[in-house]
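Exercise: predict the structure of this protein bound to adenosine-5'-triphosphate.
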Amino acid sequence: MKAITLRDVSKEYGNVKALKSINLEIMSGEFVGIMGPSGSGKSTLLYLIAGLEKPTSGSIEVLGTDVTSMKEDQLSEFRKNNMAFVFQFYYLLEDFNVLENLTIVGELARVKEPKKKALELLDYLRLSHRKNHKPNQLSGGEQQRVAIGRALMLEPKIILADEPTGNLDMEDSLRIFNLFKSLNEEKGITFLIATHNVELTSYFGRIVRLRDGMLV
Ligand SMILES: Nc1ncnc2c1ncn2[C@@H]1O[C@H](COP(=O)(O)OP(=O)(O)OP(=O)(O)O)[C@@H](O)[C@H]1O
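Solution:
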C-alpha cells in the first residue's frame, strides 16, 4: 500500500524556491532517510507531508487521502489519526512529569485508558523508572524517548522526524535509531527521517537525497 505520494510538488517562500517539482512515492512499512545539505528542503518536505504547510503547486496524498485540499479541522483530525512528528527539540511540558506528558496527549485525543497506555509505552521505551521525573531532570536521549512515547500514544501509521538526533551524542543517536527500527519492524510504522548524520545511513532502507530543493 502507498503511504505517501507527492506529485509535482513545489514550495516557494517569497522568491525562495524551497522545493522544485518533487515526485516521490513511499510505501507503507518503508524506513526512509531524507538527506541533503542545510537549506536543501528536508524540513519543508516533512512539513508539507504533515500538512503543516501547503505546497505552492502539486498534490500530496497520505494513505490515499489528498492532504493538500483538506480544510484545517479535517486535516488536524486526519493527522491525529495517522501521523506523528518528532522534532530536534523535544517540546515537552516542563511543569509535568514524564507520565503526565504522555497521558495528557492521550486524554486530549480521547485515547481509551490513557494512563494504562502511557505506562505500557514507558515500559517499552525502558523509561518506567523515570515516570515521575520532570523533563529537565532527564538526559537529552531520555527526553527524546519521552517525545517519541508521546507520539506513540496516538498509534501513528507514519512517523515524520526532523533531525531527531540533532542534539544527541552518537550513543544516544544510535539508541533512538534502534528504537525507530524496532517500531518499524514490530509495529509496521512507516518512517521518514531527515538527518545530516551520515553515520546513521546504514539504518535506512532507502535514502531520498535533496539538493537545492530538487531530488538527486
Ligand atoms: N518559513 C520560511 N520562510 C522563508 N523561507 C523559508 C521558510 N522555511 C524554509 N525556508 C527556506 O527554504 C529553503 C529550504 O529550507 P529547509 O528548512 O526545508 O531546509 P533543510 O534542508 O531542512 O535545512 P536544515 O538542514 O538546515 O534544517 C531554505 O532556503 C530556507 O531558508
